[in-house]
Amino acid sequence: MPENIQDNSQNSRRNFLKTSGLGVLGAYLASRVFGRDAAQAAEPAKKLEMVSPKDPMAQSLGYVEDAKKVDTKKFAKRAGPGGEKQFCYNCQFYQEKKNAKASKAAACTIFGGKGVAAMGWCNSWVQDPTVKD
Questions:
Q1: Gap between the Cα atoms of 125 and 111, Å rounded
Q2: Domain locations in the chain?
Q3: Dist CA 70 CA 76 (whole Å)
Q4: Helix, strand or coil for residue 105?
Q5: R_g of the chain computed on alpha carbons
Q6: Alpha helices (H) along the chain
Q7: 129 with 97: CB under 8 angstroms?
Q8: What phi and psi, each to the nearest 5 degrees, are found at residue 128?
Q9: 3-state secondary structure (DSSP) of residue 95
Q10: Which residues face 49 on adjacent strands?
């Protein structure tokens, strides 16, 4: 009889793990498909808190609201090849994807969801392959 109980507990454990795994996968897929738009529609519009260029983290990353004002001696990444095409709106951390270039500002994951200017720049810039100029 103890063998039978052990087999049942192992089957229960397996079923639990299978069901849990499928539940997590389903929740992830649902959040990818419906999550961002549904969550935004359910919440009232919030005013985007903007990053201050005087913020210590922003200063350490060379964040400016106008990419043309980057200190290229200090941040050579912007002065390098293709640097003139680096803006917040075409960075992978910029959260507006549908109309990135037309937007004025959007949340940035580097700055904890605070807003950055679309025409801004910081040294964390990485090309977003989904945004074309």
A1: 12
A2: 1-46, 56-117
A3: 9
A4: strand
A5: 23
A6: 2-30, 36-42, 56-60, 76-79
A7: no
A8: -90, 115
A9: coil
A10: none
Share of the chain above pLDDT 90, in %: 56
User: Topology of domain 56-117, per CATH?
Assistant: High-Potential Iron-Sulfur Protein; Chain A (4.10.490)
The Cα–Cα gap between 43 and 24 comes to: 24
CB 77, CB 70: distance < 8 Å:
no
Q: Tell me the CB-side half-sphere exposure of residue 89, using CA atoms within 13 A.
A: 17
pLDDT band at 81 (very low <50, low <70, confident <90, very high): confident
| 34-79 pLDDT tens trace | 555 444 444 555 789 999 999 999 999 999 999 999 999 999 999 9
Residue type, 6: Q
Give the pLDDT score at 43: 52
Q: How far is the C-alpha of 95 from the C-alpha of 99, rounded, in Å?
A: 10
**Structural element, H or E, at residue 28:** helix 2-30
